[in-house]
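User: My instructor asked us to take a sequence, write out its structure as tokens, and then describe one feature of it. I'm not sure where to start. Here is the sequence I was given:
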Amino acid sequence: MQFATVQPIIARPDLPVITDEEAAALARTTVNLFRALGLTDGEARVLLGDMAQRTWARWKVGDIGRIDRDLRARMAILMGIHKALRYLFTEPARGYAWIRKPSTAFGGRSALDIMLCGEITDLIDLRAYLDAERGAW
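Assistant: Let's start with the prediction itself. The structure tokens for your sequence are:
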């Protein structure tokens, strides 16, 4: 039996990455989004990968420190969820309220319940669901 040779993956520095400045802006936007969603500090911290309480407190007053790759990815996915909600609901308040409403699509749980499981894949799954809902139109 002959196997195909696996080609090495070459790093692509030309591909866009989230810069430190963009990550800080994303963090500030995430704080504002969480306020709009009415999230508790505990809920916010879980969505951000179990962020430390002191770090979240600093973020809320605009003191954004170093942001690692996982956190950048989480925030980018959360912004995608927000964008999808804005497409699906013409009134922002309805989209924000939908996050907490039980859904048959999630076995009676809410989108927030799904996201609060804490894994980045939970955020990805919700984003994919919303994108599919939006694409069905």
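For the description part of your assignment, you could build on this observation: Residues 20-135 form one domain. Try explaining in your own words what that tells you about the chain.
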